[in-house]
DNA sequence: TTTGGATTGGACCGTCTAGTCCAAACGCTA
DNA sequence: TAGCGTTTGGACTAGACGGTCCAATCCAAA
């Protein structure tokens, strides 16, 4: 703990562009740190936490091993930093998704499918699936890692979804006797199936797989919960 | 010419089981082997494959390390033997379950719930959840391990379930337009949710959790697919 | 009793890795 | 230019682990 530590300064800048050419130019304080985090993400996602040595990360980052230890203390600190850096934008993104879907609307099916696709993409898309797998696989040693990540698929997200379902029921667009249960069912249909198809995050889902999978889940969901009067149009494709 | 030396366990030893040519008396030959397998199951399930040394297994089995190597060649062989020993009864058990459920019957809901509970119990009950977790977590190094195990939750089982659903549709007890898709939905509702609740096999499911989870899954399934005429009685509880 | 495979204990090797330590080099800023 | 914090490379410790080798021993069958 007593190690000197550079300022936390966790910028929300996750700009895709990396490898800025300026070797020493602009204020190198956080630069090394960012490079280590990015390299860690790459190499951890590919090889797993346990099977990746600190030195490997250092080399991948073009940095000495000692620098890694200077910044993150020990391997556990490095892993934690990498994971939380990756998981940070997720909750926010989930709110964004929910902000524009599952509301009162004209085409309920299209709306739910849109939500489902974006939710699945968020958790199992190309950017996140590998790291998600690693976290799942090795969370035994660090269970707290899954907390931040899981937030967007756990109780917090579920509560919000249940709220939306309840409101849709109140305005007559759905006929759901138990919103909480329905939210869990929806998660199972979307994320459960997505996780299986993606081998629990080991392979990224293709867009067409996401489409089919979400269409299937939303179909049974609306078949079960669309009001009797509503037509519940089957997918036109 | 050396002594016995179970020579070159490396490459050529791809034979699944060395099938001890039981040169010896009936009892002693397999006894050590069985003890090693049982100990391996215990200790692997608790600590994982990678973090458990061969010597640990040997000690837990009350056997010398060399004996383990004599029987299984190397660590990979040991793991494979342990897993397949555990997974062996699963497929058979699934057939048993399916043999007595999802057939023509009077109470469809009770029948489906019975099937669901037994399926979930088979894959995530107290006996199997720990080992399942370990397999899932460490299948990166040995993907083939999941094959035998996954058989009861993968395509094979799914095909059988789809067959049952199709027949039930033909005799008018269900109204399912796409049996294959419905089978996948059923799996997501039952196993997907069960896996999440059990933290992907890390903790065994309690019987009441299984009950609630299966009741929920079957409820939406029948709500979606019960024929319009059928009453589809909600769970009396 | 002899025989020979099965078993044992333990030394041993090579490799990998987390983490430490340090002196020299570097680069920014006063 | 001098000072000061960061970085670097590399040597080093300590421990874990897979796997091998071997001499001694056990034990049931012939």
Describe this protein's structure.
Two copies of one chain form a homodimer. By secondary structure, chain A is an all-alpha fold. Chain A folds into two domains: 9-86, Tetracycline Repressor, domain 2; 102-237, Orthogonal Bundle (Tetracycline Repressor, domain 2). In chain A, 62% of the residues lie in helices and 0% in strands. In chain A, helix 5 crosses helix 10. The first copy, chain A, is elongated and about 65 Å long. The structure holds a DNA duplex (30 and 30 nucleotides).
* Mean pLDDT level of chain A: 82
CATH homologous superfamily identity of the largest domain in chain A:
Tetracycline Repressor, domain 2
The helix-strand sequence of chain A is HHHHHHHHHH
Radius of gyration of chain A: 21 Å
CATH class bucket of the largest domain in chain A: Mainly Alpha
Tell me the domain tally of chain A: 2
* Largest β-sheet summary of chain A: none
| Corresponding CATH architecture of the largest domain in chain A | Orthogonal Bundle
